[in-house]
Prior knowledge:
It is built from six helices and seven strands. The radius of gyration is 20 Å and the shape is globular. Helix 3 packs parallel to helix 5 (about 170-180). By secondary structure, the protein is an alpha+beta fold. The protein is about 25% helix and about 15% strand. The protein has a domain at about 65-235: CATH 3.40.33.10. A hairpin with a 2-residue loop joins strand 6 (about 210-220) and strand 7. Strands 1, 4, 5, 6 and 7 form a five-stranded mixed β-sheet that branches. It has a two-stranded antiparallel sheet with strand order 2-3.
Amino acid sequence: MIVHRLQFYVTFLLICGSLANYFCDLPCGKHENTVCRREVSKECGELSFLIAIFIQPCTCSDRCGAHFRMLPLEKNSRKVILDLHNKFRNDVAKGHDIPGTSNTLPSATNMNVLTYNREIEFVAQCYANGCKEWGAHDKCRRTSKFESAGQNMFASWGTGHYNYMNDTYLISGTTAWFDEIKDMEPDVTTLVFRGKVIGHFTQLVWAKTTHLGCARTVFGNGDETGIYLYCNYGPGGNQLGGAIYKSGATGSACTKRSSEYPNLCDDHSETDHDWEPPFNIVF
């Protein structure tokens, strides 16, 4: 009787978890969606282990270590990283000198202002919790709104005690991505990688991207701790051969300009205030 009852509960949990998680219906070709993948680890605690098996993915992995902590962004932190992205985009859209050279990036006719998206954030948090070595990227970060999504990653670690809860690492990570501008070529009409690391910068300023969502996770063992910061972008950029943005008179292709960032287009007004996650990530 006990065995049959246990089998019933396991079956019930599997069915309910599958029905609730709509991300399992959003694959990318042969690749399963990040929010549908299950990576099981007892290192994260028995509750997390059982949840990963029976109900949901997004639990931590053995790579996270004893210091694992999920640090979801709160409202103020979301605003900090969104504002910094839009500030950098606004600066580039009016034309920007390439540091250390006599070259200048041209002004942009069509660069969008970014809006924060909690569904994108949810996917980023799910993947960040896996603590992938060297910040490897996931294969399928698709959402209900965006079939393709880009991704930037930043990591910082060391020995000692750090306050990962403050916004310092959000700012330093985003600034590090922007600083790749120093290796850019003036031609923005065709994305080509010539051996220099510029992909974080080009995604940050990709004109057609409209939405952003970010996540962070603490990892480490012993005296060493670190933080992963992931930002996902929709629609994704960094399409080889594609235009980072169209050069010309600033904002000339905009139907409407942003009031806060006047060099950027504000042609999209969608929000995700009514979006609810298919499940809560529990540890």
